[in-house]
Amino acid sequence: MGVRQRQLWVFYNNDTLKCCNQLFFVEMARDLILGLNQYTHSAAVCVLDANGKMLFCGEKERVSRKKNDGGDTADLVEHALNAVGAELSDVRMVCANNHLFRIDRFHDSIDWSTALFQYRSSYVSDFNLLPGIERLELSHHLAHAWSALPYAPFDNGIIVVADGMGSTLHEMQMPGENYFTDFGLEKHPQFHEVERKDEAFGWREGESSFLFEGGNIQQLFKRFIPEPSPSLLYNYGFENMSSLGALYSRVSSHIFADWNACGKVMGMAPLASEWNKDYEHQPILSGSLDDLVIDWQRLRDAANPNQWADEDNRGAYASLAADMQSDLETVMLEKLQDLRAKTGAKNLIFVGGVALNSTLNGRIHREAGFEQVFIPHYPGDQGLAVGCAAFAYAQLNNQQLPAQQQALSPYSGVEYTDNDTAAALDDWQDWIEEADLEDTDVADVVAQAINDGQIVAWFDGRSEFGPRALGNRSILADPRRGEMVEHINSAIKKREAYRPFAPSVLEEKVSEWFDDASPSPYMSLTVQARADKAEQIPAVVHADGSSRIQTLSENDNAKYHDLVQRFEKLSGVPMLLNTSFNIKQEPIVETPADAMKSFLDSDLDLLVINGRLFQQRKFPDMLTSSMIPLAAPNFTAESVSNSEGDNMSVRVMVRGETFDIEQIELGLLEVCNGENTLHDITDYFKENWDVEQDTIMSHLQGLYSRCLVSIIIPQE
Ligand SMILES: [Fe+2]
Fold it and tell me: Could you say which architecture CATH assigns to the domain 418-616?
C-alpha cells in the first residue's frame, strides 16, 4: 500500500479513460502485460490487464510526431503506463518482437553499444529495457498471427501472414530462453514449405500460414525468402527481397523514393489506362506462391527511379503499379483458394503489411470463398504489439486467449480532457477562437457546414490505433463535391492530387450505395459503388468506380454515426468523406495541441475537439494605428549572407519549428515587441527604409498566417 502524487486515469463504464491530477491510493501490483514492437519501424505498445482486457494500444509516431517512427520504446512505454495509471512495478510480463534481430541478444550488449555512441541514451532507460520484468520474445510472423486470432469473430480457420520481411531463419532456429517461433508448433498434415534453393546470405520469413482452433495453432505453409545481399546493406538489402510485400515495396521505392508508400501505388494502379493510352498488362509475377517466378529484369530496368515530380514518367509508373497490383491479387487469391481447399477451413484471418492493400482485401472477401474474413485495424507491424501481448497472456493463463471483446474497438488510445484542450488553447488563442454554440448542437452545426462545402477537422474521444482514422481523428467533407479531392490533397494534406478519399457510410444504408458490401468497420476493403449512385458521390469514388469504405454502426461509434445521420438528413447521402486528420505527411494528430497546430497550418474551415467548436481568428479587416503586433515569444533567428554582404536566407526558429522568412520580416519581428503600435512600426519602416505601409501590412499578414505574430487590440 502506498500513496503517490501522480496522474490518475479513472475508468468510467470500464472502458473510458479520463485523466485528472490528484492523490490516489495504489492498492497492489496490477499484473499488467505489455506487448511491444520494438526497435524497427512502427514501434508500438499494447497493454492488457491481468484478465486480458485491452487497456491501451499506441504507436510511437503519435508521441514522437515522426511518421512510422521506430527505435527504442522508452517514451512510448512511459506514455502508455501514464495512460492506464500504472508504473513499471505494475507490469507482470513483457513480450516483444523485432524482425531485424533478436532482442535478447541485443539487450545483452546494449550498455556497450550505447557507450560506443551507437544508440541514444533512451535505449538504456528502464522504460525501454524493463529490467526485472519477466520477458518473452516472439518471432515476427507468429506475432502477426497472434495479433488477430484472439480478436476474430470466429474461433477456427486459417491465418495468412504476408509482409515485407519477417524474422531470419537462422535466428528462429537458434533456441533462446523464452524465445518462441513457428518451430515450437505442430505441423498440419498438409504443411508445405517452399523449397529453399537459391544462393543466399540468409533466409527470412516471406509468407506464412497457420491453422488455428481456439489458441491451438498449427503450421500450414511457409515460404522463406533469400537474402540476396549482405545484411549490412541499408535496410538489410530489402529492395532485393522476393516476398510479395517486398516486391510491392520495391515498386513503391521506384516511384516515390519511399519503401513505405505502397498505399500510393495501390491508389495509382487504376489510373494506368488513363495515364498510358497503350497500357496492356505485362506480368511481373507468374506462377504460384509455391514456385513464384519474378521478372527481376523488368524491375531492374524500370526507367527513371524516384522522379515522381516529372509528369512524363507517370504513364510508366502507373503501368508498373497496375501490373504489380494485378499480379499480387492473382498470386494471393490463388494461394488462399489452395489453402482453403486443402484444409476445408471456412474462415480466414489475413494480417501483415500486405493486408493493408484494400483492393486485394475486397477481392479476398468476394472471391476467395471463405464464409468470414477478419482483418484487424492494425495489420501492419504496429499490430505486433497486440500479438505479443496476447501471446504473453496465453503463456500466463494455460494457453487461454485474452477475453474476446464484443467487437474489437479501434479507439484504444488516450481520451484527452477539457483541461488538455484549455491548455492547448492557452498556447494558440491568439490565432484560434472558440465559437459560442449557445443552445445549438455542435453536430448540427458541423453537418450544416459540411453540407455547405466546408471542411471540418473532427477530434473526439480516444485516439485510433492503426493507420486509419475512423471518426475520432478525422477530416470530414461532403462526398458529393468532386472538387474536394484536389483541394484536400493539395491545400490540406499536401500530397499527390490523384489520391482517392474514402467514405464512412452508415452500415444500414451501405447496400443502397455499394455492390457486394461486406462489413468493413476498419476501412480495410474496397467495393464498387453502384452504377446508379457513383456520380452522386464523386469525391469518394476512384477512377475504377471503387471505394474503400468504412461501414459505420451506432455500436462502433455513436457520436460519429449520429453526425453522419444528421448530414444525411440535410443531403440525402448517408456518408461523409473521411480522411485522417494529419497534414504534410505528418502522423495523425494525437492531442488537442497537435490538432490546433495542424488546424492553423492548413486550409481547414472548422475544428471540433470533444464537442467544442473552434475557428481560426481572421487577420483583422480593419487595422487601426493603435493596434500592437506582437512577435511569437522566444524566437531565434539565423541570417545568412554571402561574401559581398548580400542576404541569402533568413530563418526563424520558434516552438521547435523552423520557418524561412524574408529579411524585412525579421526586421518586423524584431520591432513587434508588444510596445510599439502599428503606427510606430509603419512610421519606423517608412522613415528608415522607405518601405510603404501596404508592404508592411502584407508582410505582417504573412507572419500572422504562420502564427509568428499576433495582434493585440487595445481595450477602448
Ligand atoms: Fe510484418
Answer: Alpha-Beta Complex (3.90)
